[in-house]
Design brief:
By secondary structure, this protein is of the alpha+beta class. It has four domains: 2-209, no CATH class; 215-315, PAS domain (Beta-Lactamase); 330-404; 411-571, Heat Shock Protein 90 (2-Layer Sandwich), CATH 3.30.565. It has helices spanning 13-52, 57-77, 81-85, 87-108, 113-131, 135-155, 157-160, 166-214, 233-239, 260-271, 317-368, 375-406, 418-429, 431-437, 456-472, 531-541, 565-571; strands at 2-3, 10-11, 218-223, 228-231, 276-285, 288-300, 307-315, 413-417, 440-445, 451-455, 478-485, 491-497, 544-551, 555-562. Strands 4-3-7-6-5 form a five-stranded antiparallel beta sheet, sandwiched between helices. Strands 9-11-12-14-13 form a five-stranded mixed beta sheet, with helices on one face. It is elongated and about 170 Å long. It starts with a strand and ends with a helix.
Length: 572
């Protein structure tokens, strides 16, 4: 970055290069004008001096013709690329030629010293103001100008002593030399500042023009009657119109783009000096129809004192189609979920109702025949009861897992005590089975407050399945259910048993539906492999984590941690 002299503003190297290039361009026109003036004035001087100083006419003719010839060829060169790129050099050559011609005339016609030096000085001063180039160039001109005239004075010193006003002429020449440098310095400084501002305005206009042209939204300006006077590519693309230099063939209000209702609505809003924001339009583009959003306002043009409509047009056809497709998909999904829910409900009803009827009938028969039952009949009734409960449990698991997988399970959170409202009830359910198996089931509560906010039904199913597995796979020893808090204050439940355990190879399939460690009809334990799969899903629903550790023939530990219970407990 470089600093502009006497200002706190900075200009870039790029701007300096532009200024130099612009200076070269602006020198061309003054150069041509000075060359033409030099040719014309040289011809007049040639005629005058040859006529009145015929004794030295050959020298006058030679030097004046030299200056005219140089001016002519410089005028020609200024129209070519070399001249355009080296305008400052051509100016120096032209001024040197003019000064040399005046100096030569003074040498051969000493009596013309005063008038020639003053004409040359005025020429240099006028050209300095006219050219507006850098001060360094004018300093160079002043140096060779004074040098040439100094040489002429030395050559003709004996004759010049007797010329009137010679001293004043020399002072005048020196004064104009200094003044020309000062004038050029001020002129160039002001001109450069103006040029910098112009360049920055031009760059700013270019930047905003690129933003305007490359915008994905259709940007436009229109007259009050809808005639487009400026628009970008996106605007023409939306309307299906080719972009040309003239925009007069596009009119929002007269062409067939808008309906009469839209035209009336837009016109009314603009007449009331209201801004139109996100106004949805349906445009007829040939045989197709596009949905667009219009944003515009009306303002007064300060130059023409007329109304101008400015705004943007955005094609939202794809967005509208996508939203419609999403709406239809949502409706279809909701309908599918409704059908799934109805299907599961019907299946549940159709299966559970007859089984419950069978169980009720069997229980009734058992009560009626209670006094007359022999041992075989009693065993048969027990088998029917056990098998029926097994069927019901399997159906419950399948239907519950289907509900969770299909997304139709209705999660209904409520506040309840995990120990009293869930674990204690499950404990009482398994009391008889525990006695029959001659094992111990122990409930331990290490906290005072076990309140959580969760879906009570699914939480109940989590621990019912975990405890059911512990009871099923434990033949001796004990089962302990511990309610406590972990190091982070979160509510957790541990179920520890001394059962048969789980092999390390089966752990990857632990939560896979219908997977069991022992497969086939010869397996030792009943089950369908749905329990832990459902437990995992229910844990996810209730923002809980489940972790299982086990050793074969030693036992299993299942730990469930409710992740959001720290804050809930503190607020209770």
């Amino acid at each position: 970055m470089k600093r502009i002299s006497n200002r706190s503003e900075y200009i870039t190297e790029y701007e300096l290069e532009l200024i130099k290039a612009e200076n070269e361009k602006t020198l061309l026109t003054p150069l041509k004008i000075i060359a033409v003036i030099a040719i014309i004035s040289g011809l007049f001087a040639l005629i005058f001096e040859v006529r009145y100083f015929h004794e030295v006419s050959i020298y006058v003719y030679t030097f004046r013709f030299y200056a005219i010839a140089v001016a002519f060829w410089i005028l020609i060169a200024s129209n070519f690329e070399f001249g355009k790129q080296h305008a400052a050099l051509l100016v120096h050559l032209l001024l040197i030629a003019i000064i040399l011609s005046f100096g030569a005339i003074i040498i051969f016609i000493p009596n013309m010293m005063v008038i020639n030096s003053q004409i040359a000085a005025l020429t240099i001063f006028t050209s300095a103001i006219f050219l507006g180039w850098e001060a360094k160039h004018q300093i160079v001109v002043a140096i060779y100008y004074n040098l040439i005239f100094g040489i002429t004075i030395l050559i003709n010193r004996n004759q010049l002593y007797f010329i009137d006003n010679i001293f004043m002429a020399v002072l005048f020449v020196m004064f104009l030399s200094v003044m020309s440098v000062a004038a050029v310095s001020v002129n160039y400084h002001l001109r450069r500042e103006s040029l910098i501002k112009t360049l920055r305005v031009r760059e700013s206009q270019k930047k905003y023009k690129e933003i305007f042209d490359n915008s994905l939204e259709g940007l436009f300006q229109a007259t009050a009657d809808g005639k487009i006077i400026a628009a970008n590519r996106a605007f023409h693309k939306i309307l299906g119109v080719e972009q040309t230099g003239s925009e007069s063939n596009v009119n929002l209000f007269e062409n067939t783009f808008l309906t009469k209702e839209d035209i009336f609505s837009i016109s009314s809003s603009l007449l009331e000096d209201k801004n139109i924001i996100n106004h949805t339009l349906k445009l007829k583009i040939g045989d197709a129809e596009k949905v667009c959003q219009l944003n515009c306002k009306i303002r007064t043009d300060l130059i023409t004192n007329s109304y101008i409509i400015e705004g943007s047009l955005r094609d939202i056809t794809l967005q509208v189609k996508s939203e419609e497709a999403l709406r239809l998909a949502k409706e279809k999904t909701e309908e599918s979920d409704r059908l799934k829910s109805e299907f599961l409900s019907q299946i549940s009803h159709e299966i559970r109702t007859p089984i419950n009827a069978i169980l009720s009938s069997v229980e009734f028969l058992r009560d009626v025949l209670d006094q007359t039952l022999n041992e075989d009949a009693d065993t048969t009734f027990k088998i029917i009861d056990s098998a029926s409960k097994r069927i019901i449990r399997t159906i419950h698991l399948i239907l519950n897992l289907a509900e969770v997988h299909s997304g139709v399970y209705q999660y209904m959170p409520s506040r309840f005590d995990l120990y009293y409202d869930c674990l204690l009830l499950i404990y009482h359910e398994y009391e008889n089975i525990i006695k029959e198996k001659e094992i111990t089931l122990k409930l331990s509560r290490n906290i005072d407050n076990a309140v959580i906010v969760a879906d009570e039904h699914s939480v109940n199913q989590i621990f019912k399945n975990i405890i059911d597995n512990a009871v099923k796979y434990t033949h001796y020893g004990n089962i302990e259910v511990i309610t406590e808090r972990d190091a982070d204050g979160r509510l957790c439940v541990e179920v520890n048993d001394t059962g048969i355990g789980i092999s390390e190879e089966f752990f990857p399939n632990l939560y896979t539906a219908f997977s069991q460690e022992e497969q086939g009809f010869t397996r030792k334990f009943e089950g369908n492999g749905l329990g832990l799969a459902l437990v995992k899903k229910y844990c996810e629903l209730n923002n809980a984590e489940i972790a299982i550790t086990s050793q074969k023939n030693i036992g299993t530990k299942v730990k469930v941690v409710f992740l959001n219970t720290k804050e809930i407990t503190l607020s209770v």
